[in-house]
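We emphasize that the prediction below concerns an isolated chain of 475 residues; any contacts that depend on oligomerization or on bound cofactors are therefore not represented. The input was used exactly as deposited, without trimming of termini.
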Amino acid sequence: MSKRTAPERTEVGYRLSRRRFLVTSGALVAAAACTTTPARAPSGGVTEGTVKLSAWTIGPDAPSYYRRDNLISAAETLNKKLAGKPTVEIDATFESGGQWGDYLQKFTLAAEAKTSPDVILAGHENLAPWVGPSYIVPLDDLIAKYQSEGGIKDVIPTLWSAMKLKGKTYGVPQDTEARPMYYRKDLLAKMGWSKDKIDGLPEAVKKGEWAWPDFVATAKDAVAKGVVGPGKGWYSRPSKGADIYMFYYQNGGEMQDTATAKLVIVKDALLKHFQIHADAVRNDKIMTQSIYGMDAGKEWHPTVTDGKVLFYNAGSWTWKDWQATYKVPEQSLWDNVGFMLIPAAQRGGKPVTVSHPLAYAVTSNAKDKDLAFRLIANATTPELNSRHSVTSAHLAVLTTQKDDPTYKQDKFLLATQYMLDYTKFIPNHAKFGVYDDVLYRFLGAVEQGQSTPAQAVESAVKELQGQLGDELIVK
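Result of the prediction step, given as a token string:
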């Protein structure tokens, strides 16, 4: 998935404090000054000397710099446990404002050349393409061996499922998030909604009492009353990304078969997914036709932060990005913006969201895989994960974070944490990129009036069968 083009995680002109610059990209952080050549035990583990580990991380949103800094802190903790037998040094980098595609390609080239870092951070779905060529290693034995390290045993169980491929675990969750449906409280008030009804909307959605037909009717009403302009009842994500699949899941879609790990298309759910967007753009006209490919930084975000759109999809991290990049005061957000799950397809159904956990993985090039994993484990604690969460607006990955003082002070995270009970994930599959490209292209064809939803389903499925072969299950 791959991250992050807006309204996913973005960074435009975010100012870093002096503290954040103290550990610059590529800076070597030595937990001890020892530089002797490490001695290895018969099993291959290092018993003394210094082990220099390296790690690559990325935002690209600037507030996510703790993805790097937490590993640095973990090295200090790990060295106290090791007591010099051996000593670990960590060279950790953080890419801010870059492109995910470039970052992933850089790792692939390094892995091929066997110059990759010991630890790599990536989206959970990025791990699958690296399993076949053995760029990363399975972690199940290490997880079992080091259950007492850090907070490994306290990872939220559903997040482990996103780390698995064919029953093996390849990553440790570093963060996660939800993709809410945001809405303007002030605009609903202009439409005559009472404060109690506005404030109760997230709970009504959660209970399935306010569903997609209600959503569409409200958006149409807002346009009809002139509360918002034409096509501004709902702004979906304007680019390819995980958010798009919330509406496929909303209608009973499946994306991956648990037993075989093959990709799945449910034709009826795909038809409904396409129909939702066709209706929004072409029939009900609650969403502008220019949404497909709209420039996020120059148009999408400025339009929604100006209060010109009633409903809009974005990530939980965007709450902080609106403040940092688009200079919206936090209190203004609380006063005017609400957030809820994606309403159920019909009343009485279950609402949904999608999460995209990022994960630390141990590479096959790691000098000492046990130490690399222990570094990750010691970066996975309530204290460290919570400081990342509150700085970058990401949700907890540990059950123990709910009791962490730092996490408990963040009103927004506490208000959105429940969404993980309703979340889905995109697939871990080496060819998910093909699947994603095809479905997003046909979504565009539907929105632009170049294809009916039914035609798009048949064409998309035919193309996917041709490209994926027996790696695709059609239902």
